[in-house]
Specification:
This protein has 274 residues and is an alpha/beta fold. It has a single domain, classed as 3-Layer(aba) Sandwich (Rossmann fold), CATH 3.40.50.720. Helices cover 47% and strands 15% of the residues. The chain is built from 10 helices and 8 strands. It has an 8-stranded mixed sheet, sandwiched between helices. Helix 1 packs across helix 8 and helix 4 runs parallel beside helix 5. The longest helix is centred in the middle third of the chain and has 29 residues.
C-alpha cells in the first residue's frame, strides 16, 4: 500500500524515468533520519516500512516541508516485497537510483532458548531482504553508470555475540556483503557503503529491552541524527565503510587484532542482562 505526498512526480516522456531514493526501515530510527538527510538531494523518496501509520505520518510531515515522497507500507520479508517496490517505482515513472537498506531488528537470549522461527525472521529481515533488494536494484544502477547502495550494518559484525548470536551474525553478513560489492562495482560509477554504528538511541531497545546489558552500559549511546548524518555524508563521499565515533573505531580495531577466543569470552561476559 502506498500513500503519496501532495507533490507530484515531475512529468517525463513515457520512455524516461526519474531517479528515486528507496529507504527501508524508514518509519523510525536511523532510516527515518537518513530520509531527512536524503530529502535535501531533491530526489523523490520511496519510504518502506511495515508500520503504516507511522510511515504515513512521516510522509505527511515531509510533504509539509515540500519533500516529494510516498509511503510504501509492506513487510520487507513478504515474498513479493522487492517486486512490489519495483512496481511502485514504475507506476510513478521512477527508478531506484539510491537504495538504503535500514530495516532490521534484534533478539536477546541464548539461541537454544529463543524461538527458532523468530530467529529465522531476524535473518530474513537483517540479511536476506537486504541482499534481495540490493540484487534487484544494483544491476540497473551499474547499467546506468550511477547510483549506489547504503547498507546499515553494525560494529557487532566484527565479533561473535553470545546471547545475540543470530543478530551479530546477521550484521557480519551485512558488513562482508557490502565490502565485497563495493569492490565489484569499483569504477562503474556506482558505490556501495556500509554504515556500521555502535549503540544508537533508537526504538531498537524498546523492541528488545533485554539487550540492555553491561556491554550496553559501557558503550555510550550515539545520537541517531549524528549517525544518520555520518552515514549519508560518507555514502555521498563514496566511502566503503563508515564507522561513526572514535570509540567505535577502536572497538572494531580491537576485535580484529585480538584472538577471537578472547573476544568471544569478553563479549559473553559483558553481554549479560543487568
Amino acid at each position: 500500500m502506498s500513500i503519496d505526498a501532495a507533490q507530484e512526480v515531475p512529468k517525463t516522456r513515457s520512455s524516461e524515468t526519474q531517479p528515486a531514493i528507496v529507504i527501508t526501515g524508514a518509519a523510525s530510527g536511523i532510516g527515518r533520519e537518513i530520509a531527512r538527510m536524503a530529502a535535501m538531494d531533491g530526489s523523490f523518496l520511496l519510504l518502506v516500512d511495515r508500520s503504516c501509520q507511522q510511515l504515513g505520518d512521516f510522509v505527511a510531515e515531509l510533504a509539509g516541508n515540500g519533500v516529494k515522497s510516498t509511503a510504501h507500507c509492506i513487510d520487507v520479508t513478504a515474498p513479493d516485497a522487492a517486486r512490489s517496490i519495483e512496481n511502485a517505482l514504475a507506476e510513478r515513472r521512477l527508478h531506484c537510483d539510491v537504495l538504503v537498506n535500514c530495516a532490521g531488528f534484534g533478539l536477546f537470549g541464548p539461541a537454544a532458548e529463543l524461538s527458532a522461527s523468530e530467529q529465522m525472521s531476524l535473518v530474513d529481515v537483517n540479511a536476506r531482504a537486504l541482499a534481495e533488494f540490493t540484487l534487484r536494484f544494483l544491476p540497473g544502477m551499474v547499467a546506468r553508470g550511477r547510483g549506489g547502495v547504503l547498507n546499515v550494518g553494525s560494529i557487532t559484525g566484527w565479533a561473535p555475540g553470545p546471547n545475540m548470536a543470530v543478530y551479530y551474525a546477521s550484521k557480519a553478513f551485512v558488513n562482508s556483503f557490502s565490502a565485497a560489492l563495493a569492490a565489484e562495482v569499483a569504477g562503474t560509477g556506482v558505490t556501495v557503503t556500509c554504515l556500521a554504528p555502535g549503540v544508537v538511541a533508537t526504538p531498537f531497545f524498546e523492541r528488545c529491552p533485554d539487550a540492555k546489558t553491561w556491554l550496553f552500559d559501557l558503550m555510550p549511546q550515539s545520537n541517531v541524527s549524528d549517525v544518520a548524518t555520518a552515514g549519508w555524508l560518507g555514502f555521498k563521499a563514496g566511502k566503503r565503510m563508515v564507522i561513526p565515533k572514535l570509540r567505535n573505531q577502536l572497538v572494531v580495531a580491537a576485535s580484529k587484532l585480538l584472538p577471537q577466543s578472547l573476544v568471544v569470552r569478553l563479549v559473553a561476559f559483558l553481554q549479560r542482562s543487568r
